[in-house]
Amino acid sequence: MAKKYDTPMLDELKKGAFPSFITEIEKATETADYAKDLLGLLERSFNEKKTHWKHGGIVGVRGYGGGVIGRYSDIPDEFPGVAHFHTVRVNQPSGFFYTSDALREICDIWEKYGSGLTNMHGSTGDLVLLGTNTESLEPIFAELSSRGWDLGGSGSAMRTPSCCVGQARCEWANIDTMAITNEITQHYQDEMHRPMFPYKFKFKVAGCACDCIASIARADMSIIGTWKGDIQIDQKEVANYAKGGMDIQAEIIDMCPTQCMGYDGKAISINNEHCNRCMHCIAKMTKALKPGKERGATILLGSKAPIVTGALLSWVIVPFMKMEPPFEELKDLIDRIWEWWDEHGKNRERVGELIERLGFPTFLKGVDLEPHPAMVTEPRRDPFFFWSEEDIEK
Amino acid sequence: MSDLPERQTDIGPPHYEKFLPPVIKKNYGKWAYHEEKSAGVMVHVAESGDKITTVRVASPRILATQSLREMSEIADKYCDGYIRFTTRNNVEFLVSDESKVDGLVKELKDKKYMLGGIGSRISNVVHTQGWVHCHSAATDASGLVKAIMDELSEYFTDKETPAKVRLAVACCVNMCGAVHCSDIALVGVHKTAPRILDEEIKNMCEIPSTVASCPTSAISPNPKEKSVKIKLEKCMYCGNCYSVCPAMPIADPKNDGVAIVVGGKVANLRTVPKFSKLAIPWIPNNPPRWPEVTDAVKKILDTYIAGAMKHERVGEWVERIGWEKFFDITGLEFKIQHVDDFTFARETFRMAATFKH
Fold first, then answer.
1. B169 and B286, same domain (yes or no)
2. Quick check: A102 contacting B, CB < 8 Å?
3. How high is the pLDDT of residue A1?
4. Mind telling me how many Å the CA of B334 is from chain A's nearest CA?
């Protein structure tokens, strides 16, 4: 197909070993015209070293306050094909599993009503349909939802929860990440589709402390699988690792952060009382070591990127919670946190920033959580602490 | 639009069980171990002895429907139609019938898919939209990823690194990608303050929320113009005001560029999760291949590979040798921008007399 614009800069990025996004955009010109103008606009950006997209306007589907991100070019006269180029966030199935039929169903709809370009997936987890016009939004939603698909979150709402592969295909998953993610998503549809929070709220669910979904860095609430009890050891497999050439002393014992392990040349011993469950030994000796038998999750709160007051990692608010359907204890905690955040949070204030502003003790009292040494790396260094009325002798 | 099917609301995503291969359904929660067969192939073995083979390929994340259809066809041929994506946007073909693995690998290679990303290697690069689709991008994302991964592809397909190396690219400091906790990451940054378009602010922006958006209180109301003013010496160019008020454009092609941050991780293995820290404050945007950026990334990666112990992530290696040593052996210049003066700065000052000369 003849190109609508010359794109020498972009053509350079079709070369090389790694799959090319330019090749993908060129493919999409076969099913719709959007991508032709996207190439022209993008070449312009590469030349001028600046973006040519404007702020999102308010667009969406009837009855929802989110799920669609408005996107407009700042030079629509020159590139009319991408004058509107809105994003539709489709809520992905937990664990990012699909069948070929399901993918083709999405492709059929998207080729008919949109640019044919997707992101598999967006940073929050959605299946992102990249680029359509305002008129196509309702038809897309009707086609999607009538076939069992729904939109994800955007704006000041619960954002689409996501998770690692979990128990579907990982021996380390201490919790059923996909079931938890699906349950949160279904239970809080209203909170996702009709923004009513101070700002965004993200959930990510990881099966173990390896945290393949980056929950501790990228979710307001991070749910990370863990265990209680002794690590299960298969000494025969330990011997096999040694036979296979692993330097167990150097790679496992010496790298244990709590120095709670020993190896006598034949067998591994673990002083489980001192294990902090970091996953190093289990991940490196997956045939020989398994987590303890009592499974659950550590709940952490607050992580976010640097805007506004600096990046935060989530920190522990519940050291151990059992995770069994229908996850009532978790949902009850979420409700309490949202209520407190709603009441005290300023516009565009993430829950982690609110806790920074008002204090962690205030949060703990506000959502009725008991303080626990696992919540801090060390107690406070200063002598400036509050007391309540009931602590005072009258 | 009467020919449209009837819409439904608040049904949520399809249940994942619809998309699980039978062998996964049968052995759900009962996997015993996995083995890495090669950079792009791993086998998970269940307690029952059942197996599932995963063949992983790289993806630019932006995928046209044609590519999804091609992957679907391949999945039909070898995987009974089952396919998934990883949290880092790799594509995974899920093979239940072991005898089909070799055929799948061959077809993927014939079709020029890039197999790899498993184990102690570089996996797919988490990244943002960049100039392809974002209004606040200070650099492109897909272009940077392509330029870097073309250079480092052998660390995806073959060569091992001391531990996993997680790369990420964010096109601005909003960091929609996990840049703030990655081994080596790039982030688009501005060096100049936003312009104030008084006439447009009047019509487009809400003054109180614009003032409140500034993390350093550099913005104050300008009642005379029904606009705002900026204390330039306080502005650190985050662009948050522009997110709230479109009449404060911050893009500046001559001064926008890329910062490199290193040493972050999200896993708890051995050491606690870490933020990425600043290695290079600014490199100019030089599309389409950003050679200065790819050179710098390679230099950091090579120094890490030469110096790290087995299983040591970039951040663990740097903490063991010390940041002063990191700047010494990478040859990167330590500038005034490396000394923190933002919210959590004090924790980063060296409160000890022990360091390396």
1. yes
2. yes
3. 53
4. 22
Domain that holds residue A218: 162-227+295-389
What the block records as the tokens of A291 is 């987590």
Q: How far apart are CA B266 and CA B268, in angstroms?
A: 7
pLDDT(B178) > 90: no
Q: Using CA atoms, how far apart are residues B61 and A275, in angstroms rounded to an integer?
A: 38
Q: Do B251 and A50 touch (CB under 8 A)?
A: yes
Question: Which 96-135 residues of chain B touch chain A by CB within 8 A?
Answer: 113-114, 126, 128-135
Note the pLDDT of residue A118.
98
Predicted TM-score (pTM) above 0.95:
yes
Kindly list the distances between the CA atom of residue A355 and the CA atoms of A5, A6, B221, in Å, as whole numbers in the listed order: 51, 52, 28
ipTM: 0.96
How does B68-79 read in b/e, with b if 16+ C-beta sit within 10 Å?
A: bbebbebbbebb
For residue A83, count other CB atoms closer than 10 A to its CB: 15
User: Is B7 within the bounds of a domain?
Assistant: no
Q: How many CB atoms lie within 10 A of CB A145?
A: 19
Q: Which of A130, A151, A122, A127 has the alpha carbon at shortest distance from A34?
A: A130
Q: Which range among A37-51, A149-163, B232-246, B316-330 shows the weakest confidence by mean pLDDT?
A: B232-246
φ and ψ at residue A114, rounded to 5 degrees: -145, -165
Please indicate, yes or no, whether residues B207 and B300 belong to a single structural domain of this protein: no
Contact (CB, 8 A) for A48 and A128 = no
Which residue does chain A place closest to B2, by CA atoms? A139
C-alpha distances in Å from residue A374, one per residue of A233, A300, A377, A381, A388 = 26, 11, 7, 17, 23
